[in-house]
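Please go through the sequence line and token line underneath and see whether the fold suits the sequence. See right below:
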Amino acid sequence: MILTRYLTKDGPTWAVDGIPLHKGMTLPFMLCVPAQNTWRVLSNIVKNQKKMEAPDITGAAVIAPVEEDQEVWAAGVTYLRSKEEREAESTAADVYGRVYEAERPELFFKSIGSRVIGDGGNIRIRNDSAWNVPEPELTVVINKLGEVFGYTVGNDVSSRSIEGENPLYLPQAKCYDGACALGPSIVVAPASELTNLPIHLSIIRGGVEVFVGDANTSQMKRSLTELTEHLIRETSFPKGVLLLTGTCIVPPSDFTLMAGDKVSITVGELTLVNKVVRGPIER
């Protein structure tokens, strides 16, 4: 089953396999009970093609699959390639090696839902950064009980030059307007089905593919269960949370994103496409 969020004339509305849901069926509502319960309800809707009292989604635009007041977090150094590249860029290389081998994973706040860019929207590179890259990542949707509810595609847009100066600059390198893209939808699936998903990154510049890379979630050092358990250990998420799980597709050190680039990321059966911009923030 696939959950998609639409912007209708009556406001944001979710749909499952193209069937619009009642406006009360928000993502936080679906993530406040055991995943099996929500999966069963959604499955019955699809099976019976049940029409609910819901807004019309005909012609409505698809928007990011996250509510404005939900949190998006991220994990780092979960793949060997990520460890190696972080060490190469940083003036404190041993930090990343220690994180890769440590019992505790690197987890950090990435974005509030209202800042997230959806499929087809513009991601941004910082005006004060010279080295910027996309980071294609499996993003898991986690309910308030800490269960994996499903997945979407994530782009953890990052400034390598800023993070490389000092690991303490991580929030500035990763948390700014236009630095987080998710979408286009959520595939409803348990964690057990997410351990062998292909990940593909393509960057087009001027009609020419300037970078392409492939990976698989099976290459992750840390399990989704491990990441989730650490995330919810001392922090509650009553509305659920989305977690980007790290990347191992890394462009070479002489590559940086440029305005006008098109970034396409595929994880499993979903593809997220965004255009890159650099410039003033629209307020």
User: Anything to note?
Assistant: The two ends are 36 Å apart (CA to CA). The first strand starts at residue 2 and ends at 8.
